[in-house]
Amino acid sequence: MEKKIFLGLFLTLVIIVFTGVYWATEPARQEAALLRIQAESAERGGETYYSFCVPCHGTDGDQIPGIDLKNTELDDSVIIKTISRGR
Asked: Given this model, what pLDDT does residue 87 score?
């Protein structure tokens, strides 16, 4: 009987310790995941730009007269929608 009580207390303590360790490391894990997702998104964005935009706009974004992608006055939300949905 005492072995069962000791085992129950020990397992409860193990769960509490592992839960504390998880909570302590979770913010760092989330930050690393966010950085990885941002890097992957930037890479996919670059591939998309070179596949679909460079042929007309050029590598610097200023090949079409009157449409300078680097110095645009468009709102960020408009740019995001244009990139996401196309023109």
From this structure: 67
